[in-house]
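Hi Y.,

Following your request, here is the sequence exactly as I used it, all 299 residues.
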Amino acid sequence: MTTATAPAPVARRSPARPPARVAAQVFMISATVLWLVPIVFAFYVALRPISETNKLGYVSIAHTLTLENFSNAWNQSDMLRFFENSVKITVPAVIITLFLASCVAFVVSRFNFKFNVALLIIFTAGNLLPQQVIITPLYRLYLQIHLPHVISDSGLLYNSIAGLIVINVSFQLGFCVFVLSNYMKTIPHEMYEAAVVDGASLWARYWRLTMPLCRPALAALATLLTTWIYNDFFWAITLVQTGNKRPITSALANLQGQFVSNQNMIAAAALLAAIPTLVVYLLLQKQFIAGLSLGSSKG
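Below is the corresponding structure, written out as tokens. Let me know if you'd prefer a different format.
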């Protein structure tokens, strides 16, 4: 009597990855490498003495690594003062921009009136205007607007930290209104109807109901605004004349000599200047990622 033998198990093959997924992964890896190479190279240059790079070139094997360039960059550029100026510009500009943008977005998204869409288009269109186009009339306008000496030492909007705050708020407001209004439209109308029935005022519906629900979007915008305003260089060199009032980006320009430049020290200063934006991103990382994925989960 013969017994039937069980068939040998067939090895399962893992399903092949779609070409689109493989291409996406290759693209993301390539983009990450391209983004990291300049940063790693800048850090490598910052650790090398200038005498060694002048002798061997920047693309060469380092024989000496030192932190001297970082200390020299911090001391020679008076970086602490420019850090303080950047904080005085960035923090108020981000807070004012988010507050004003949330107010406009709340009105545009929650109320239906004749110029609803036109108002949103006006705020959004401001981001499409190149900064260089309006620099001449803006410069003349800044020379005509007077401010109390408590706010501006020069008595003008020009050559003042308040002037940089105003122009940054003006240029970033449109983008924030566009993002926040689209997100506020996803909040169910039933919540506002229930709030009205309970006797909630307009301010209560905005501050106590809408703003807590917009925390992910606000955190994402706060991260982006901090990076953009903190790294601004164009407005700082055109609307501020006094060097000790300029932000951190101008401190890097102070290290640039007319005839000889220490690129190693400039690289170290640039890395030091980038630390605050990295800290802000690390603190708001979860909220920032949640804010970027809002559109995929809400519609």
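The chain has 16 helices and no strands.

Thanks again,
Q.
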